[in-house]
Design goal:
The chain is α/β, with parallel strands linked by helices. It has one domain: NAD(P)-binding Rossmann-like Domain (Rossmann fold). The protein has a 7-stranded parallel beta sheet with strand order 3-2-1-4-5-6-7, sandwiched between helices. α4 links the parallel β5 and β6. α1 packs across α7, α2 runs parallel beside α3 and α3 runs parallel beside α4. The longest helix is centred in the middle third of the chain and has 29 residues. It is globular and about 55 Å long. It starts with a strand and ends with a helix.
Length: about 250
């Protein structure tokens, strides 16, 4: 029975992905910074493991506790929406540390066992914002675009040892804490010159009503994990698919 290790399972995409893999008979290692057993159905095929992707010792321990892993899903991430001029560099570094370097650290931790077996899959959850430039998402999109570029190069390397690397690109979702976390990281006191622009951006965020649901992302991760013929980049959600079609 194959095993998937998923980061960031306390809510949103990670939680939905853990549930879907459990339902389909896999062993699931669901990681969270603060483990909560009540979030997922009790199962002998489920392990909930503490993990902070920014802490090297936490990464080492989590991978050691997980045992043999067939698929790594790098889902842990944070959001940011705001005017770049008023975004602190500390916040920018936090974005890159979590969205990019955390995935890199987890990947390095599991690659030795993948290499020894000559098999394994790495699925990195990115963002459909990388399909199209959008305002007030500059630093966030940069962190996800870097994740995309790294994954593309990594995929070419890993072909040599029989390992696949894939991207899943979700659109905007009402079912994740992205909005809350993004707003918490917004810097107050943006220059007055931006005020009208910011109002227009928020007024236009409703779009055409198409969004991404957590199950859309879980299904995309499942496809990227289990279907060797799946494309390198898999859009997740109606809005992401529309953006990919016009990219």
């Amino acid at each position: 029975m194959p095993t998937v290790l998923i980061t960031g399972c306390s809510s949103g995409f990670g939680l939905a992905t853990a549930r879907l893999f459990l339902e389909r008979g896999w062993n699931v290692v669901a990681t969270m910074r603060t483990p909560r057993a009540d979030l997922l159905p009790a199962s002998q095929r489920l392990r909930i493991v503490a993990l902070d992707v920014l802490d090297p010792e936490s990464v080492r321990q989590a991978v050691a506790q997980s045992g043999p892993v067939d698929v790594l899903v790098n889902n842990a991430g944070i959001g940011l929406m705001g005017v770049f001029e008023s975004t602190s560099m500390a916040t920018v570094r936090e974005l890159f540390d979590t969205n990019l370097l955390g995935a890199m650290a987890m990947t390095q931790a599991v690659l030795p066992q993948f290499r020894e077996r000559g098999a394994g899959v790495i699925v990195n959850v990115s963002s459909a914002t990388t399909y199209k430039a959008l305002p007030m998402l500059a630093a966030y999109t940069a962190s996800k675009a870097a994740l995309n570029a790294w994954t593309a190069s990594l995929a070419l390397e890993l072909e040599a040892i029989g390992v696949r690397a894939r991207l899943v690109l979700p659109g905007r979702s009402p079912e994740t804490p992205f909005g809350r976390s993004a707003q918490q990281r917004m810097q107050a006191g943006a220059p007055e010159a931006y005020s009208g622009f910011v109002e227009k951006v928020f007024a236009g965020r409703s779009g055409d009503g198409t969004v991404t649901y957590a199950l859309d992302v879980a299904e995309a991760v499942w496809r990227a994990s289990t279907d060797a013929s799946a494309p390198f980049s898999v859009p997740a959600g109606a809005d992401a698919e529309a953006m990919a079609a016009h990219a």
